[in-house]
Amino acid sequence: MSITPIYAALLALLFVFLSFRIIRLRRALQVGLGDAGDKQLGRAIRVHANFAEYVPLGLLLVFFVEAQQAPFWWVHVLGLLLLLGRLLHAYGVGQVNETLIFRMLGMIMTFASVVFAAIYLLVSVLF
User: How many domains does the chain have?
Assistant: First the structure.
């Protein structure tokens, strides 16, 4: 059974949710481009962009780890770290009155997924 497609699908749904959040705010504020100085819209745009910056690399690394026939539980750990990291980050940064812990935990989990996957791949390929 393939594991990475599960996380790809869940992250894709989160990406669409974040996209619709921006669309909803743009309609409500009547803003076609940019954020017009609105803090909530600016944060929603940044959450979406940050997601788009980190998730493709993270998913690609999880896929490569799975392709190296890593234990299923390890692929799940990496996928969950990425998914939960992106959820926490989106929640934390998405709040105008941000609680920094969610943003921090989200980035730590995202970085952990990327770094652990990269290390696993290097070790599995080089040794």
Answer: 1
Q: Could you report the per-residue pLDDT of 26-53, keeping only the tens digit for each?
A: 999 999 999 999 999 999 999 999 999 9
CATH of the domain at 80: 1.20.120.550
8 pLDDT above the threshold of 80: yes
Q: Which two tokens stand for residue 111?
A: 């970085």
Average pLDDT value for residue range 84-102: 94
What is the rounded CA–CA span in Å between residue 116 and residue 122? 10
Range of the domain at 90: 4-126
Give the C-alpha separation, 110 to 24, whole Å. 27
Residue 41 has a CB neighbour count (10 Å cut-off) of 20
